Amino acid sequence: MKIIEVSDYKQMSVKASQHVIAKIRNSDCLTLGLATGGTPKGLYGELIEDHHVNGTSYKCVNTFNLDEYIGLSKEDPNSYYQYMCSNLFSHIDIPLSQTHIPSGMADDAAEECRRYENMIEDAGGIDLQILGIGENGHIGFNEPGTSFQSATHIVDLTESTREANARYFESLDEVPRQAITMGISSIMKSREILLLVSGESKREAMQKLMENDVTENFPASILKKHPKVTIIADSAALDLK
Ligand code: GLP
Fold first, then answer.
1. Known catalytic residue: 138?
2. What are the residue boundaries of the structural domains of the chain, listed by start?
3. DSSP H helical ranges for 55-196
4. Fewer CB atoms < 10 Å away: N or C end of the chain?
5. Domain covering 2-178+217-233 in this structure, CATH number
6. 127 belongs to the catalytic site
7. Percent of the chain residues past pLDDT 70, beyond the cut
């Protein structure tokens, strides 16, 4: 794992955007894996600005998001579909048909997981996966204890994850209890991974990631086994003064 230290959230976002933009500009066709949450918002903002200023085009980019809440429709303001539209897709020239997010409203969620995993494979896999990290080390919605062999699957969200995400909802009660997430093996199949870590609340997770052994009790630890991972972390997450 290569670790790039940056001063703050803005610099993390800028650095990450440079990495993503270079990849897009250097490939005929790129498949990006995308994350939600607070962490990548700044990155998406930088990509939008670059699209407007420098004209980087997304017409040949395909995207696959990591996860979606079960029970939230595409129209729900808290769905990750809405998040992606308002934070990225509506502001760049990507055809929506080239963007993919698991459906949280599928009649058969298990079938939706299989469909999603197959779709990623049929697209030739993910070239560059953007990741954030949960305070408990989750990646996507893969909570501690998730099998490293897992493909896209249904998860029961832990109370700590629901509480951490409650800030986007009216109340904790409204936070869904389940989600569909790419599995650990789906994430590990990506040819390259960019993990973004910012803020004091992620310091403990960052420390565990650097110091702990690879264990299913700390899902992000699997990244140590991936051949091409870059972590862009700010000084608050790294405890540098
Ligand atoms: C959520 C998402 C993850 C994200 C994590 C951290 O639960 N499913 O993909 O990385 O939380 O979120 P944040 O970036 O808001 O700290």
1. yes
2. 2-178+217-233
3. 80-87, 109-122, 159-165, 184-188
4. C
5. 3.40.50.1360
6. no
7. 99
